[in-house]
Write a structure and sequence with these properties.
Layout: E1 4-7, E2 11-14, E3 25-26, E4 28-30, E5 32-35, E6 38-41, E7 45-51, E8 56-64, E9 67-74, E10 77-83, E11 93-94, E12 107-115, E13 120-128, E14 140-146, E15 154-161, E16 164-168, E17 171-175, E18 180-183, E19 198-201, E20 207-213, E21 222-227, E22 231-238, E23 242-249, E24 261-263, E25 266-270, E26 275-278, E27 282-284, H1 291-297, E28 307-311, E29 316-321, E30 331-336, E31 341-346, E32 354-357, E33 364-369, E34 373-375, E35 387-390, E36 393-396, E37 402-407, E38 412-415, E39 418-421, E40 424-427, E41 443-450, E42 453-456, E43 459-466, E44 479-481, E45 493-499, E46 501-508, E47 514-517, E48 521-527
Parallel strand pairs: 2-3, 7-38
Antiparallel strand pairs: 1-48, 4-40, 5-6, 7-37, 8-9, 9-10, 10-11, 12-13, 13-14, 14-15, 16-17, 17-18, 18-19, 20-21, 21-22, 22-23, 24-25, 25-26, 26-27, 28-29, 29-30, 30-31, 32-33, 33-37, 34-36, 35-36, 38-39, 40-46, 41-45, 41-48, 42-47, 43-44, 43-46
């Protein structure tokens, strides 16, 4: 029988739940996303700056006077740097409030608002010991200062809450335990007792997150508040009440205060057992690909470290989370709003603790972490005067606790003068004659493939598979997909592999490596093959 051409293509998304054989989506991948239903490599990332004093537990970006002001909160306090339009950073400025006591268990919440008295924009920073317990009732302080300032932030003594802060312009809201909310005098960030200010208890549970909400005429400003078991809407009504509050749902949940994000007017977040959204009503976000995988591998003891960040350029929402026994975020589960599919990735080796999409750039800023002692050559972003050699260990004399990265930059990992490749791969769903429209109890033999990629640098492809769903995997040696073939033979990739259940693994792991998949064609024919195979290990 002559060879038959076959398109090598699976359905968009990476399926982790269920068995590999029962689905049509890709079954594995790392640092890969989907566009137009096809895989492509996620962009690289570069180091912007680094700081000490503790892991980052809050981030805020605000654009002002042609610069992006980035504030980061950690256990030691608050730091600020700026980025110009080319994302060139300035040195860190310490803006830690006077009297603040370092604490490793704090979470910082930031926002910004225009202040009438100052005639300028103020950054607001709330801190509370919520990192180990989202339901913590211990109150924390609220601070403020010019967003473009360099001096320490100042205390607002009238406000102590356990939840956080949010600007519903021109009001500032602080929220916390027992459903308590408090708002400022409109237009005055430090005045919480003047005309128009107020407070209310709007539910019995702690409120852990607040965000602005678009409202109709006469009801603006408005906001959403997430308690531990409900979603509540605040609407401006004026008069003595100032705001009215109505419960949208009293039967919801929230995994982490940092897991809520708005995407084009729709709000997405992680519940304790499912993904949820609000677009006028609360709905579950369907996820048949990796829902079980996420919740079964999430380190629930570190739930408050889960954070959301969006990448609108690619239609993505990332939820970064601690996988297995990890105590910091090591993986991300990704919902692609545009493609309506789910996938996941391992995060860079530094991990990530917080992140935010900076509106001026098409790429997000994420903050990583490093231990004070690292083995081998993993620390490349520190300057020589910070490091001493101790056998195989490199000890940081002035510890670097957080590293700030610009994502979606180029194709490599760039840390100062160190440039290294970013590994990206994806694995197709099973291709099998026994599961075809006209089932045949036959294996398949691949003679060669015609690769079709928008490609920078060489890639590799391997064939893997098994004799049956319980048999062990048998994987071929990698074959090269040349970015620029120098001979006619290098235009194709030759194999002589036989599998009853067959998958293809495509990988890029070279400096400047990048790819977008097109119509890859495999040339196959039926072949004899035993139903029994190697024992799975």
């Amino acid at each position: 029988m002559p060879l038959q051409p076959m398109i090598v293509r699976s359905e968009a998304g990476i399926k982790r739940d269920g068995t590999k054989f029962e689905g049509n989506n890709y079954v594995d991948g790392q640092w890969v996303r989907f566009q137009r239903g096809l895989p492509r490599k996620i962009g690289g990332y570069r180091l912007l700056t680094q700081g000490s004093g503790g892991l980052a537990r809050g981030i805020h970006t605000h654009n002002h006077d042609g610069l992006t002001y980035v504030h980061i909160g950690n256990s030691a306090g608050v730091y600020r740097f700026t980025l110009n339009n080319n994302a060139v950073p300035t040195p860190l400025v310490d803006r830690t409030p006077a009297g603040y006591i370092s604490d490793e268990d704090v979470v910082w919440t930031f926002d910004a608002s225009y202040d009438t008295t100052a005639g300028d924009v103020m950054v607001l920073a709330h801190v509370a010991k919520n990192l180990l317990d989202i339901a913590n009732d211990e109150n924390g302080a609220l601070y403020y200062g010019f967003d473009n300032g360099t001096t320490p932030l100042q205390l607002i003594p009238a406000v102590t809450v356990s939840g956080g802060v949010v600007a519903l312009e021109p009001y500032i809201f602080a929220y916390g335990s027992n459903g308590f909310v408090q708002w400022s005098r409109p237009g005055f960030v430090a005045d919480w007792s003047g005309s128009g200010s107020g407070n209310a208890r709007i539910t019995s549970q702690k409120i852990v997150k607040g965000l602005p909400l678009r409202a109709g005429a006469g009801n603006a400003p408005a906001g959403l508040f997430w308690s531990l078991n409900s979603l509540i809407r605040a609407s401006f009504v004026g008069g003595a009440p100032v705001f009215q509050f109505d419960t949208i749902s009293s039967q919801t949940s929230i995994l982490s205060s940092q897991s809520v994000i708005e995407y084009d007017g729709i709000y997405f977040w992680c519940g304790v057992d499912r993904f949820l959204m609000f677009n006028g009503v609360v709905r579950e976000v369907p996820n048949s690909l990796n829902l079980n995988w996420f919740y079964e591998n999430l380190n629930f003891n570190e739930r408050e470290k889960v954070f959301a960040v969006k990448i609108p350029r690619w239609g993505e929402i990332w939820w970064c989370f601690p996988f297995g026994n990890a105590t910091e975020c090591t993986h991300a589960v990704i919902y692609n709003v545009r493609e309506n599919t789910w996938y996941d990735t391992v995060l860079p080796s530094e991990g990530r603790t917080v992140g935010q999409y900076a509106q001026v750039f098409s790429s997000p800023i994420m903050v990583g972490n490093l231990d004070t002692t690292e083995v081998g050559n993993r620390i490349t972003e520190a300057s020589d005067n910070r490091i001493t050699e101790d056998g195989n260990n490199r000890v940081i004399n002035d510890p670097i606790y957080f590293t700030v990265w610009q994502h979606e930059f180029g194709a490599n990992r760039i840390a100062g003068t160190s440039v290294s490749p970013v590994r990206s791969y994806f694995e197709t769903a099973d291709i099998s004659l026994i599961a075809s429209q006209q089932p045949q109890n036959m294996a398949m033999r691949v003679e060669f493939i015609e690769p079709d990629f928008v490609q920078s640098e060489n890639m590799t492809v391997r064939i893997t598979g098994r004799a049956n769903a319980k048999a062990g995997e048998v994987t071929s040696d990698p074959q090269t997909i040349y970015a620029t073939p120098s001979t006619p033979q290098e235009q194709l990739v030759y194999f002589r592999e036989i599998r009853r259940e067959m998958r293809f693994i495509f990988e890029s792991n070279t400096l400047n490596g990048d790819y977008q998949m097109g119509q890859v064609v495999a040339h196959v024919e039926p072949a004899t093959g035993t139903v029994l195979g190697e024992v799975a290990s």
